[in-house]
Amino acid sequence: MKGDASLFAAVDLGSNAFRMMIGQSVRRNQGFEIQEVKTLREPVRLAEGARGGSLDELALDRGWQALARFGKKLRGFEEGRVRAVATSAVREADNAQLFLASAERHLGFRIDVISGHEEARLVYAGVAHTVPGKESMRLVVDIGGGSTELILGQGAQPLLTESIAIGSSTFGARYFQEGRITAQALLEAERLATLQFEKVARRFRALGWQQVIGSSGTARMLAKVLKANGLNDDGQSGITYGGLLRLSLRLLEVGHVKQLRLAGLQSQRLSILPGGLVLMLAAFKVFGVTHMTPSETGLRFGVLHDLMCKH
Fold this sequence. Notes:
By secondary structure, the protein is of the alpha/beta class. Helix content is 43%, strand content 24%. It contains ten helices and 13 strands.
């Protein structure tokens, strides 16, 4: 794989996990299609290591080690065929420069700290590339570890982008410390998320949409859990409002994430489940969503799409 001139790589330094996707461009009709070659995921939990605005030493070290492993796979890649982007955990950290200096050395490539709006644009580019629908308006909801991106677009064109500094990891740490779940914490977390979404909702509602897509790991995790445990309405796939409510009741019944017995839930995702669930419930409520389709693609596909368009 090393040095293969047809390959591109996207590295995503997220708040929960670092991911790398290597892909190639395959000609299709008048355009091209991104074909996935290899994907790696490292559960770095960078946002969990934020103490008083700075990333702690353990989080920094987990990040550097993950990037060193990615760097080994990227040896021989030309500079213009790799793009690494860092999102909210690095964006918000007081010691971001300390982290980045070593991070770039371990990876072997420059790392761009992107704005919330740039993140939203890239997420939409990834979704638009793989989810057909040239005419329909679609709302894309991307709940990450440290921020949530909302994009309204038509075909390949994003029309409205918003980034809100609330995410599954940050909400988990704030309201569900050490995995404890109470009715009061769920209500308070959902109230705050609802207030944040309401600030931008009017502009989205004014344009309207026909389809709702969830493009993050949070959306994929929730869809998988709802389906595997038969929590959705009438055996539907994807994410339904009724399914989210039933899942929140399951969480309240046990009172702690470690007591949860849910099919389809990986242990490393337990800590982000309550925060991700609350944010999704708030998004469904504010935007009047009854059903969401999870998308396998998002930021990394968007980064690859940009790289391939330049070549």
